[in-house]
Amino acid sequence: xxxxxxxxxxxxxxxxxxxxxxxxxxxxxxxxxxxxxxxxxxxxxxxxxxxxxxxxxxxxxxxxxxxxxxxxxxxxxxxxxxxxxxxxxxxxxxxxxxxxxxxxxxxxxxxxxxxxxxxxxxxxxxxxxxxxxxxxxxxxxxxxxxxxxxxxxxxxxxxxxxxxxxxxxxxxxxxxxxxxxxxxxxxxxxxxxxxxxxxxxxxxxxxxxxxxxxxxxxxxxxxxxxxxxxxxxxxxxxxxxxxxxxxxxxxxxxxxxxxxxxxxxxxxxxxxxxxxxxxxxxxxxxxxxxxxxxxxxxxxxxxxxxxxxxxxxxxxxxxxxxxxxxxxxxxxxxxxxxxxxxxxxxxxxxxxxxxxxxxxxxxxxxxxxxxxxxxxxxxxxxxxxxxxxxxxxxxxxxxxxxxxxxxxxxxxxxxxxxxxxxxxxxxxxxxxxxxxxxxxxxxxxxxxxxxxxxxxxxxxxxxxxxxxxxxxxxxxxxxxxxxxxxxxxxxxxxxxxxxxxxxxxxxxxxxxxxxxxxxxxxxxxxxxxxxxxxxxxxxxxxxxxxxxxxxxxxxxxxxxxxxxxxxxxxxxxxxxxxxxxxxxxxxxxxxxxxxxxxxxxxxxxxxxxxxxxxxxxxxxxxxxxxxxxxxxxxxxxxxxxxxxxxxxxxxxxx
Length: 654
Ligand code: 3HC
Ligand code: NAI
Description:
The chain is built from 26 helices and 17 strands. By secondary structure, it is α/β, with parallel strands linked by helices. Helix 19 packs across helix 24. It is globular and about 90 Å long. 3-hydroxybutanoyl-coenzyme A binds at residues 25-26, 28, 61, 64-69, 80, 101, 103-105, 108, 127-128, 131, 133, 135-137, 139, 278.
């Protein structure tokens, strides 16, 4: 039964068959695994001396799902739904022994087994919706026959895996084990071997039935949260179908819908991003380069970014020193970090012991010499070149010579900062996004002088932080902010050409952005960008089109939500001021306003993003167009299910 190329092997231990899948890295259900498993089921059924089987996986995880790399190729037998049908009809009881993750097709295989045991640290879930899919191998039919229908909808439509303990409470796991999964699974199999064979999951009665009103209450939040994405809504409806229709019909409907979604633009876009994100850091790091250990990190500035960065560092088990300019600011910064950690504790993201340990890993000082032993320092003071140069000159004198010096600047020239130091080779940009302990994106800004060792160490550091790290060259705004500046400019041109802020924002939201550009500016505050525009006024090219509408708003003290008004007014009164200013500015330039449709608004935004993206590629600021998409999706609210601006260009999604 075992062969060199067969990823499925069998050991007979007494009268139990221990079936092991070894298909690194995540034991995906590739064709060879499916074929090996089918063969094994047949053989075990025929072998009279075997009373039960345990299905376990080698390596870091149980089966993490169907093999996504096969989705773009013609599917080869045995098909997963048929394999699982065969598994649940086996004449011997099967026990799935889960560690790591049982995801998607992996959980469907586990549902095809008669019992499931799991170690405490494992997770179970149906992440298919994150790939624009629904479970396609009977998961939606078997799940509501094992767990409550409401829980089934949340697992399948939400896409978020649950911890083994909760899975056990729901009835999805029959036994939780502490430390020796294989031993406990074999003992469990021995115990159940003599019991009558349980009904296959698909033949069991439903756990509960819901009324039409219950369904309305379950389904409507799913569609409200979908923001244009199809799969979560279809996933929830498929569970309802599986509960209300006979199992055979439900299996067929699920299979048809899975194929339809697999070929949809949304699923193609989401699969493209899955692989773009996985490969981003790989291309950037090099295995032949040494890494510098990063354990103790200094953060300069305890404002919006500094406190988020410190929290992210603590949560990833680094020791941190926060530096502020005076004791009051330091105490304020530390208090903010403690409140973030408290929140993580409250939300169950960390336990009490870890919370207590993380607090002791944070120290603070107003003296730069406290950084003498730090492996890395991240500067997050105000966006002002002179101030940053002053900070780096101090760092030069206190840091150990092999420490990495990083700036979190949004726009400023990292080359100039590096050149001002004694060892430019160790200076890099680490551009976090706000809030830094929540946002997954990190742009790693390389100068010409930085060493490969420093860069690789930063990518490794990003991995430990759980960030998606994208390399970028030096230019104003790097990848993301440069594209955002360009499309914001285009949106302001559209205001002068005939659109109103609400029309642009509505078009963006309808396209799938969580909010429009003007609502976002109101949230962030208009004053900082205004200050920057005033600084740049003297050097601005007078031949370049300049839109002064935002300046007019700022001159009136309209800085956004914090002042009660900006592009919009936030006191529920009607406001014609902005429209009047816009009409005046169009008239001043002699522009004949004409209305701009939602389609044209989106087309102009996407074209601008793609044009700027192409320039960024041509200038080698970004390595790959995939990286640009990963940045725009993870940092700027570009709808994930559309793949990113460069992807939409290639695939011409309107
Ligand atoms: N198919 C093919 N390759 C996969 C894969 C899958 N389902 N899941 C992960 N991989 C690959 C990754 O691309 C990566 O490849 P690389 O080393 O060449 O870059 C490698 O496995 C390791 O992945 P990660 O770096 O992500 O490893 P982690 O340990 O950080 O995470 C994981 C592991 C949580 C399993 C994560 O990889 C993951 O979430 N994978 C996707 C799981 C998923 O979506 N499953 C459902 C698939 S659809 C399905 O099952 C349909 C069914 O209903 C019919
Ligand atoms: P902020 O104004 O919230 O915080 C700056 C902090 O630096 C203040 O607490 C201030 O007391 C402290 N500080 C000033 N001079 C100092 C010095 N010499 N030594 C020690 N501390 C000093 O600013 P914010 O928003 O945190 O921005 C910081 C940097 O991060 C800027 O370069 C900004 O462009 C960048 N950034 C900001 C993002 C955002 O969304 N706010 C996103 C990404 C980057």
